[in-house]
Design brief:
The chain is an alpha/beta fold. It contains eight helices and nine strands. α3 links the parallel β4 and β5.
Length: 208
């Protein structure tokens, strides 16, 4: 498939020289328990697509393999957003980034990571999809509870041409300075989980 790109940044901050690019994809090494789990599955090709940072594509894939989007970040470190919180957001064509701090606090693949409640209420998801974001991006295992709800929530997003990217690496500083995301992935991969490279564009980020 030819390389395709899409930019959806009409109402986002413009890129200037006063920015920093930071890779926020989580790459899982061979010694990680998640990698070993995937390796042992009968359908290991599909399993490998669902570890680390990936985009779930159960019923369709995005039109392009490269997107640059504006971002709206919601702090979910205390609670997941309500409908009232969503109604105030201008997220059409952008990436809605849900910063939960789950990965930062609990580390990817641990029991604590899987037990953290980072799920959206069904009516809140409807409110989000009504606003037509391009992506929902989360630093956790997903926006629905493990199992059937996880998959059904992702499929509802796909029905609305919105796609969920899971397990990105975020902290408070990155989330606070995030203005854009650069997202690249292989739409032709056999797994329903498409491994992707996500780069954050940060403005006015203080250097450590």
């Amino acid at each position: 498939m030819p390389f395709q790109t899409k930019t959806t940044t009409k109402s986002s901050a413009s890129i200037t020289s006063n920015t920093t690019r930071l890779l926020i994809s989580l790459v899982v090494g061979e010694n990680h328990p998640a990698y070993q789990w995937a390796k042992k599955q009968s359908d290991s090709v599909n399993a490998f697509g669902h570890i680390g940072t990936h985009i779930d594509c159960y019923t369709k894939v995005p039109q392009y393999s490269h997107y640059t989007t504006g971002t709206i970040v919601v702090d979910c470190t205390q609670t997941m957003p309500s409908i009232d919180a969503i109604e105030k957001l201008d997220i059409a064509g952008k990436s809605l980034v849900l910063f939960t701090a789950n990965l930062e606090k609990n580390s990817y693949g641990t029991p604590e990571y899987g037990k953290a409640d980072t799920t959206l209420d069904s009516d809140v998801l409807d409110a989000i999809l009504d606003k037509r974001p391009a992506f929902i991006v989360i630093d956790s295992y997903g926006i629905g509870a493990h199992g059937d709800e996880h998959i059904s929530f992702d499929k509802r997003c796909e029905d609305n041409d919105c796609f969920v990217i899971e397990n990105v690496v975020l902290n408070q500083q990155t989330a606070s300075n995030l203005t854009q995301l650069d997202i690249q992935f292989d739409v032709t991969g056999a797994s329903t989980g498409k491994r992707c490279e996500v780069t954050a564009v940060l403005s006015n980020m203080e250097q450590q």
